[in-house]
Amino acid sequence: MALSSLGSINVPFPMPAHVSSPRIQLAYVNMNADALHPARGASVEEIQHHLVKRQASASIADTLWTAPENQDLVSQFLNNNLTTTCAHSTDDECLPLYHKYSVQDYFFLEDYVKYKAHRLITIPTGELSALRDEANSVASDAKYAISAGQSYVEDLHGRAEDLAEENRSIAELAYGNVLQNAASYEDWYDLHIISIPSKGWTLLAQKLMNDPLTRNDTIFYKTWIEPNSDPSYSSNLTAFLSANEAVWKDGIDTGTPGRMGQWSSLFRTALRLEIALFASAFEK
């Protein structure tokens, strides 16, 4: 599988042109940045091997999603009220809820940029080239967050004032707090563990697409269900995590051996917060 070009840099995970979710766009940026970083886990060649071979052994993402102890949250995520309601509703019925959720998602992206910026302090002294690359990555993340705000107005027909006037929900404040705390003591691989719930958007979008009650003539369908139903992101994230799992378990960066328990806890925390973000659309 050949690498694709992103600007002047060849990347192992070319971003499909139709990816509309800024969250998934950020995940692609982060996977590519870490894949190309010589001291951050598996090499590009190793990742490519996992992409091509699709090894039979379960990846960390699959393990966490299918673990019996996590099915309580997985079920809540896949059956959340917001996406079901919007999938079955007209624009007039869905958009007020979709707007509230999207504003909170925009706030999350803003917090995520700050999280990545905070991570810069963990780069060892003397590694200025690494600092430069990570700072460029933060700038790129900010670009996607700004784009999300523009999309809210142009594609979702929201008001620009909402992004300035709306208050952060309790769920978003909690998510932001988790990110900022994680920036101080977690390692770089954990950033991708936090992204695993967004892999579930593919499962959720496909579930809704196959639901006979889902309407396909709405803004929600065109901007959330349709683009998120593409399995390429889920497949790429799985390959990336699988290629890096053994390396990070051996303790690269601040990681220590035997991380599965911590990764499971981090996954459950992120999934709980995603569920709470969906529910926040119904807050008065």
Describe this structure in words.
By secondary structure, this protein is an all-alpha fold. The chain is built from 14 helices and two strands; from the N terminus they run E-E-H-H-H-H-H-H-H-H-H-H-H-H-H-H. The protein has a two-stranded antiparallel ribbon with strand order 1-2. A hairpin with a 2-residue loop joins strand 1 (4-6) and strand 2. The longest helix is centred in the middle third of the chain and has 29 residues, at 91-119.
Quick structural summary:
With 284 residues, this protein is mainly alpha-helical. 69% of the residues lie in helices and 2% in strands. A two-stranded antiparallel sheet has the order 1-2.
Structural class: mainly alpha
Return the string of H and E elements.
EEHHHHHHHHHHHHHH
Helix tally?
14
Strand % is under 5%
Low-confidence stretches: 1-8
Layout: helices, strands, pairs:
Elements: E1 4-6, E2 9-11, H1 22-36, H2 44-53, H3 60-66, H4 71-78, H5 81-88, H6 91-119, H7 128-154, H8 160-165, H9 170-185, H10 188-194, H11 196-209, H12 219-228, H13 232-249, H14 260-280
Helix pairs in contact: 1-7, 2-13, 4-14, 5-6, 6-7, 6-9, 6-14, 9-14, 11-12
Keywords:
284 residues, mainly alpha, two-stranded antiparallel sheet, 14 helices, disordered N terminus
